[in-house]
Amino acid sequence: MPDTTTCGTAIVHACPPHRVRFVLEALNGYGLYYEGPAGDETNSDRHTRKVLRLGETYTDDQFCCGDASRLADWLITSAPEAAFTIYEDPAREWVGTYLTYVPGLGSFAADCDNQGEQLFTQTQVLKLLNEPEDVRQRALGLTWQTAIDAMPAQVVHEPESFATHWDRRRGEVTIVDGDQACGDLTFAAPGDSDQVDAALTKHGFQRAGAWGQLDDTAHIWRTDVYRNPED
User: Fold this and answer.
1) pTM for the full model?
2) For residue range 27-74, what is the model confidence (pLDDT) as tens digits?
């Protein structure tokens, strides 16, 4: 379906706070944004934290056909704790695509109409008549829907983030205000980005986003980090 666009919709049903930024950046990267009324999203942090509205629709009327599966694959890989549904409206001669994922259940896919309602052929339904109920439930996506119905609609804030600088030449990382007692936290972190990530984990942090070079000549790279959820 080259160069074909349609209306795309994503609904996130569950997401831990430390995955909020990843999920939002993925949705926005595919042009999906929340367009409903703003709720109570104030917080007292020195930085405004990103928020994700669970159970609400993020949409784009110029969504590229085929991107639903690509976005779903990215979310499953990068935010495996999140539960979500993504669907594309029918376009030209093609039916729509419906995808949903719930941790522990895996993913479910089906054709759909422009309301995100799954479409099944008469042949598919007839084949299920003599199957056990649990088989029918899974084949029709009802197992996923039951799990999703139990998930509350709410606003989830990302955790407080800390600006972090990595001096690649010196093999040193500084987390601004990362030391609760003494301000900035600085520690040695020689090696590549994987080794730096391991050093962050050792000190109780994890990256909130990708490393970005401050400029073309600088040896300083920057990102934001979160405290590890268990700390």
Assistant:
1) 0.84
2) 999 999 998 776 544 444 445 789 999 999 999 999 999 999 999 999
For tokens 């990215």, the residue is 74
CA angle 212, 216, 220 (to 5 degrees): 50
Q: Tell me the Ramachandran region of residue 179: left when phi exceeds 0, alpha when psi lies from -120 to 50, beta otherwise.
A: beta
Task: Say how far apart CA 6 and CA 97 lie, in whole Å.
Answer: 11
The pair phi, psi for residue 210, each rounded to 5°, is -75, 155
Contact 119, 110 (CB under 8 A): yes
- C-alpha 61/C-alpha 32 separation (Å) is 9
DSSP string, 138-191: HHTTHHHHHHHHTSPP-EEEPPPEEEEEEETTTTEEEEEEEETTTEEEEEE--S
In whole angstroms, how far apart are CA 67 and each of 21, 73, 86, 226?
A: 20, 10, 10, 29
Q: Report residue 1 as tokens.
A: 């379906």
The residues near 72 (Cβ < 8 Å, ≥ 6 apart) are: 84, 86, 99, 101, 107
C-alpha 208/C-alpha 225 separation (Å) is 5
Amino acid of residue 28 = N
Between CA 138 and CA 143, with CA 142 as vertex, the angle to 5 degrees is 60
Task: Specify which residues 109 forms β-bridges with.
Answer: 99
Which sign, positive or negative, has the C-alpha torsion 163, 166, 167, 170? positive
